[in-house]
Amino acid sequence: MSRSYRRTGVLGAYMAAVAAVALGVPAPASAAAAPDDFTLYAKEAPADGDGPTGSGSPTESGSPTAEQEEYEPGDAFTFASDLYLSKTGSVVGRDGVTCTVVRTGTSSDDMLCLGNLVLNGNPGDGQIAAQGLASFSTSSDQPPAPFDIAITGGTGDYADARGYIRITDEGDGFERMEFHFSP
Q: pLDDT band at residue 22, thresholds of 50, 70 and 90?
């Protein structure tokens, strides 16, 4: 399985890469105020766990063998990424994502991905929960098209957060994650 196929099901932890600088700093969450929108870059953590956050290795369950080369419904995988304000910046958080293949086709597969992002003070403090169903081409080695996943909640500065994350494969090992919060 290619790295982009694995990570793109994401979140960016989530699912699994972004603009060079955050667009804003979130305000503390409350019933009346949503965090400001911002952008982060995600880069899958090294499999040996020696990355900046020591997040460990990706795990695959029911993934295709060399002979099989295709996924089947129920196949699943997990991965972890480090999160950055810019591609050359320091780590500001991490994510963990689990994706399960729910439908296969002749030219694309659908995956249901669930992830949590943990941010350590900049652009805010707390966790963001996200999930989404994404389709990925099985007939092309091209990076997937940008896709959106739902922000379904959070803790700390992101308590009761709602909105979406637009995920774009940057093609250089990073994914841009643009966070858009609903009021």
A: very low
